[in-house]
From TrEMBL:
It comes from Histidinibacterium aquaticum. Keywords: Transferase. Pfam families: Glyoxalase. Residues 6-116 form the VOC domain. This is Glutathione transferase. The lineage of its organism: Bacteria, Pseudomonadati, Pseudomonadota, Alphaproteobacteria, Rhodobacterales. GO terms for molecular function: transferase activity.
Length: 138
């Protein structure tokens, strides 16, 4: 059966390429791999991020819960979160299993910095007898 295998890359429309590079490279620690007048490629583990210059990009967060979650090592989440929250606005308090920090990037994209995984999330629900979440085993 043909199926997707994972997330290949993430493209974000940005209104100011230099400001977004400073956020993703300098603040979040992504590695800059390529740059051109209208964009840049950054690397974050196995994920590559494309920042695409788009003057029409929205300047405020979209009103729904859609967001991008980045993996952060458990031992780094507190220090990274402290540093990021000095420069980025929080959009939500953590209410889930595992440490999470929810911030807006300079163009209002909703981001989550998370130290858990699908495995830890499912274990959390398995351990909660009152959970209404149904778990499916492979």
């Amino acid at each position: 059966m043909s199926r997707i295998r994972g997330l290949n890359h993430l493209t974000l429309a940005v209104t100011d390429l230099n400001r977004s590079l400073a956020f993703y490279r300098d603040l979040l620690g992504c590695t800059l791999r390529a740059r051109w007048p209208e964009g840049a490629y950054l690397e974050a583990g196995d994920l590559w991020i494309c920042l695409a210059l788009d003057p029409a990009a929205r300047a405020r967060p979209h009103p729904d819960y859609s967001h991008v979650a980045f993996t952060v090592a458990e031992e780094d989440i507190e220090s990274l979160g402290t540093r990021v929250l000095q420069q980025a606005e929080s959009w939500r308090e953590n209410r889930s299993e595992g440490a999470s920090i929810y911030v807006l990037d300079p163009d209002g994209h909703r981001l989550e910095l998370h130290s858990g995984s699908l495995k830890t999330r499912l274990a959390h629900y398995r351990a909660d007898p009152d959970s209404s979440v149904e778990i499916f085993e492979p």
